[in-house]
Every structure is written in C-alpha cells, then in structure tokens.
Amino acid sequence: MGLDRAASIDDLRSLAKRRIPRFAFDLVDGGAENERNLRRNSEAFEELELTPRYMRDVSRIETGTRFLGQDYALPFGMAPIGMLNAFWPEADVTLARLCKRENIPYVASSAASTTLEKLAEAADGNGWFQLYVSGDDDVTEGLIARAEAAGYEVMVVTADVPAAGKRDRDIRNQLAVPFRFTPEVVLQCAMNPRWALTSLSHGTPNIANYADLLKSATSYADVQKTLITARFTWEDLKKLRARWKGKLLVKGILHPKDAVKCADLGCDGIIVSNHGGRQVAFGPPTIEALPGIAQALAGRIPVAIDSGVRRGADVLRAKASGADFVFAGRALAYGVGAGGADGAQRAMDILKLELVRALGQLGAASFEDVASKV
C-alpha cells in the first residue's frame, strides 16, 4: 500500500512501521508501562457518540476557528513531540512548514531534535514554544530568553512530568541518548535502508536545545535530570506567568481543581493532556477528563485537549465535550514517518477530509456549530 491508498491515520502508522527501525518507531509510538493509557485515549474517543441532526443546510462547511486571539484555518494543531527526527529525518521542520501552509499552530518541543530558532523560522508566525521546567533555573531561563528572541508569542508549560514515565519499549530497545549503535540497532538499520541512509545524511538526532548540556549524557536518566524537575509547584508557575509576557498555557491538566488554579494564576488557557499515554500508566483518558474540567472553568479561559486524536470526528467529539481547540501529535507524526513531507501532507488531508465530512454528517456547518454537549 502506498500513500495514495492510505485511507486513515492507522494506515499511515502501518506504513511508517514498515520503513522505520523498531527502536526509532517505538520511541514515538510507545507509551508508559503496559500502555493502558495510550490505548484508552483513542478507545475513549471512539466510544463517545455524537447524535446527528438532519434537515440543516451543510452545503458550505467552515473549518476555521479563533483561538487565543488568532484565526486558524482548522480547529486543530500539532502537539509537541520530542526527538521526532529519530522517527524520520527532518520531521520537525517538515511538520512546522506544513502547519504554516495549513495555518494551524505548531508547538515546538523544547526536547525537539531541531533548535527552537530553526523551528520558529519554519513555522513562520505559527510556532508556539513548549517548555519543560528544568531543575536548573538557569537552563529554564535560557530557553525562555531564546524563545522570546526567536519571536514565539505563545508558551506551553508542560506540568505532567514530576517523574519520568517508565516506557517498557525503550528499556527493551536499550534506548540511549545519544543513540548507541549496538549490533541489534545496526541490524535494524540494515533492514530499513531508506531510513538509515536518510538519517546518515542528516546526522544522528539528539535533543538540539540542550546539545551543549547533554554532551556527557549516556542515558535517558541523565537527560531527565536536565529536562525536568520534581519540584515544579504552583508558586513556580506563578513566577513563570510573571516572567512570560506572551500567552501562557499549561499542558497536562487532568483535574478540575488544577484547571481552576491555572485560571486563578492568570494563565491564558490549558491543555487537557496525559502526555499521549507516555508518562502515566494509570489515570483517565483525556476525553473523559475534559467535561468536568470545562464545567469547572465555565468559560474563564480557553480549553484545548490532546492525546488520542486519530480521526477528524475526534475533533468534534472534543468540541462537544467542552474543548475550544484540539491538538494531534502522533497522527501527523505517522504521516511524516510513512512518507516524509508527502506523508505529512497525506495525514493532514485525511484529517481535513474526515473533519469536513463529520461536520456535514453531524448537521453542523462549522466547528463552532457543534453542540456544547454530547
């Protein structure tokens, strides 16, 4: 099956799996422990039913929406994914450019394989910056200052990593940063020559924004000491709110009281997220956590959601459950893994087609017309 016959994001995932070495595919595809949360995220979306209304004029469908004071052509954007260039070379820049063309937000991960400056240039005004708060205040401040200088106007602070997730696939693959070329890795690369040759021409991927700090890193444990801290508190968020002059969202919210606290501290929005099932093996799927959070906030600040979005109809399920905007990560990543820039565009086209058809079938002429309840 080629890209032109890929009918769904799952088809693109299958194509990507066939041409990417297992250790690199698992890095993006895998989740925490037994991957219960990863599975439940998408299953919970599928289980949520929407009731169509008929005899409505849906001859013209409007997919655009306004979020955080910005008009976007679609009600979804690209969620941050770290080390994505290991999945397919130049994946970061490819997706940033795609988001610019489609006029949707691209959230650049601070753990990306490409510097935040290059991603800001590629996204060209559509880039947002995602921050992991480090245990070293100087590291955090350095990233914020660079994001300001690069022109980012929206910062997304990830709150759901007080302890790094245990990812069984990565342990089995003996994943290390930088990559260790063990005999098994070499064999996997030999079995996927297109990936190997393309990767060789672009160099070994690393966490570009921390390159100088991680030169001595030999494991994810070393990386995590620089990337995250277990001491990130509400007081720290309050200081970040005062420090950052642009829009600030908090990503990783699952409890209504935490959402309300973010609003109380002056945050501009939240993203209901469980890190795509990559951090915690327990807890609720995001679409199940969303309604209670939206009800508790009562419109005080905008609410977005990620984790588990695989279909255009999932975007409408999120809207009906209280979301103002939606983010997809793996869905677009599978596209670039399946076929580079062409595959990324195919993933985008699939989601757009499904979104338009689902709106028409639901009896809603626009994203804003979707009922606020299921």
Give your account of this protein's structure.
Helices cover 45% and strands 11% of the residues. It is of the alpha/beta class. Strand 7, helix 12 (256-264) and strand 8 form a beta-alpha-beta unit. Helix 5 packs parallel to helix 6 (137-150) and helix 14 crosses helix 15 (330-362). The longest helix is centred in the C-terminal third of the chain and has 33 residues, at 330-362. It is globular. 52% of the residues are buried. The model has no long low-confidence stretch (mean pLDDT 91).
In short:
This protein has about 375 residues and is of the alpha/beta class.
List the keywords.
374 residues, alpha/beta, 8-stranded parallel sheet, two-stranded antiparallel sheet, 10 strands, 45% helix, globular
How many helices does DSSP assign? 15
State the separation between the terminal residues, measured CA to CA. 36 Å
Radius of gyration: 20 Å
Lateral strand order in the biggest sheet: 3-10-9-8-7-6-5-4
Task: Identify the quaternary structure here.
Answer: single chain
Helix content: 40-55%
Round the mean pLDDT to the nearest integer and report it: 91
> What characteristic shape results from the CA principal axes?
globular
Secondary structure elements and their pairing?
Blueprint: H1 9-19, H2 22-29, H3 36-47, E1 65-67, E2 70-72, E3 76-78, H4 91-102, E4 106-109, H5 116-123, E5 127-132, H6 137-150, E6 154-158, H7 168-172, H8 183-191, H9 193-202, H10 220-227, H11 234-243, E7 247-253, H12 256-264, E8 269-272, H13 286-297, E9 303-305, H14 312-320, E10 325-328, H15 330-362
Parallel strand pairs: 3-10, 4-5, 5-6, 6-7, 7-8, 8-9, 9-10
Antiparallel strand pairs: 1-2
Helix pairs in contact: 1-15, 4-5, 4-15, 5-6, 12-13, 14-15
